[in-house]
Specification:
alpha/beta, six-stranded mixed beta sheet, 36% helix, binds adenosine-5'-triphosphate, ABC_transp_ATP-bind
């Protein structure tokens, strides 16, 4: 479904006149099939969010290509309604002047529903993320971190995308709330059958949610393993990451 082939990405380093370039992603190739949850794990600066932006088509690779169901993701049509995203910073990713209802309604407009159907659908979505309809008129600043992230998820699943990219989506929530949102992600996946690309520095969260994890180091894929085989990782770096779970 999602196919990433030979992707290279460079960023300009230094000032405006500098010719120095930083090689941020190096020969990245992988596939994510329908319904799969793929974790992308790596330390800060390893290139995870850059890869996420390329998958969303917000930025373009310098080499290689990213295709979603055969179409290049840089074309709006390939991803419109098919790929959505949830980021870490839920307060800034939501328009502060929009109520919860308006936030969730935005992607639903793509579906050209009647007013009544839209109203009912918002209630269903709120219910699916564990919030009551009384949240409809609330503004983002009136929500806790966990509630805001639930609203972001309701918005992300609203148009029933085939793929949701989650970039550090649970990282800033504290322990028990993080677990609740991870459980919510599991249940939404059961309901909708979409794929997730779960970008995180937290191998523990990835191991809880994902079927497969891909470890990225210095812009390269170090290893890609099924969760059941996580304990058999080969590289020293992956072993070190794994010790962090066991510890
Ligand atoms: N727009 C940009 N312009 C220039 N350099 C950038 C840009 N975006 C990212 N970088 C650099 O690319 C490298 C990879 O950044 P990226 O944000 O993808 O890493 P990450 O693994 O997501 O890190 P973190 O977990 O801290 O978000 C970093 O060295 C960063 O400084």
């Amino acid at each position: 479904m999602l196919s990433v082939k030979g992707v290279e990405k460079f960023y300009k380093k230094g000032g405006f006149f500098s010719r120095e370039r930083q090689h941020v992603l190096k020969n990245i190739s992988f596939e994510c099939s329908q319904g799969e949850c793929l974790g992308v794990i790596g330390e800060s600066g390893s290139g995870k969010s850059t890869l996420g932006r390329l998958i969303l088509g917000i930025e373009q690779p310098d080499q290689g290509e990213i295709r979603f169901e055969g179409a290049n993701v840089t074309g709006r049509r390939a991803r419109s309604g098919s790929i959505s995203a949830v980021f870490q910073d839920y307060t800034s990713s939501m328009n502060p002047f929009f109520t919860v209802e308006e936030v969730i309604k935005e992607p639903l407009r793509l579906l050209k529903m009647s007013k009544q159907d839209m109203h009912d659908k918002i209630d269903v979505l709120l219910n699916q993320v564990g919030l009551s309809p009384s949240y409809r008129p609330k503004y983002p600043h009136e929500l806790s971190g966990g509630e805001a992230q639930r609203v972001s998820l309701a918005r992300a699943v609203a148009a029933e995308p085939k793929l949701i990219l989650l970039d550090e989506a649970v990282s800033s929530l504290d322990g028990s709330v993080q677990l609740q949102v991870l459980d919510l992600l599991k249940s939404l996946r059961r309901i909708y059958g979409m794929s997730y690309i779960f970008i995180t520095h937290d191998i523990q969260a990835a191991a809880y949610l994902c079927d497969t994890v891909m470890i990225i180091r210095d812009g390269q894929i170090e290893e890609k393993v099924r969760i059941e085989q996580l304990k058999d990782v080969q590289s020293a770096y992956a072993k070190k990451l794994l010790q962090m779970i066991i510890a």
